[in-house]
Amino acid sequence: MTLEEMLYSVLSSDTAIKVIVDDKAYPLGEVPQDVEEPYIVYQIIYGPGSYSHDGPTLTSTRVQITPFAQGYKQVKDLRTAIDNAMAAWRDNFNVHGWPFKTNEYDIYGYQKDYTQVPIDYIIWY
């Protein structure tokens, strides 16, 4: 399973996320033009970098997951659901890796009334 497939699996199968966005989790560039908030966009920022000391290779990749919503509370609720789903990464994939949250910040869209919170993770797998 590729990293993108793992991300989609986490974002599309988590119950708390589905309550908010249904099945609206998209890779960057694949968001339908007429989609309504709330939804999630994810992308690979850089990677993979592989590390090994005579054992299994451990790969590090930076990803960004960005929830979009109509208001601050909804986007923050979605952010919390994403954080919780990502915290269960190791259990979901039975791998020796984990996501490490490195950054997040709030953005308000002035041309369209929405709020987004890009969240950066380094994922070791």
Output the keywords.
31% helix; alpha+beta; 4 helices; 125 residues; STM4215-like; single chain
What is the CATH architecture term?
2-Layer Sandwich
Can you identify the CATH class? Alpha Beta
- The chain-level mean pLDDT equals 84
Q: How many independent structural domains?
A: 1
Largest sheet: 7 strands, mixed
Tell me about this structure.
Strands 1, 2, 3, 4, 5, 6 and 7 form a seven-stranded mixed β-sheet that branches. α2 (about 15-20) packs antiparallel against α3. This protein is of the alpha+beta class and about 120 residues long. The mean pLDDT is about 85. It is built from four helices and seven strands, in the order ααβββααββββ.
Helix-strand blueprint:
Elements: H1 3-13, H2 15-21, E1 25-27, E2 39-51, E3 58-69, H3 72-87, H4 89-93, E4 98-104, E5 107-109, E6 114-116, E7 119-124
Parallel strand pairs: 1-2
Antiparallel strand pairs: 2-3, 3-6, 3-7, 4-7, 5-6
Helix pairs in contact: 2-3
Kindly summarize this structure in a few lines:
The chain has a single domain (3-124), classed as STM4215-like, CATH 3.30.2000.30. Helix content is 31%, strand content 38%. The protein contains 4 helices and 7 strands, in the order ααβββααββββ.
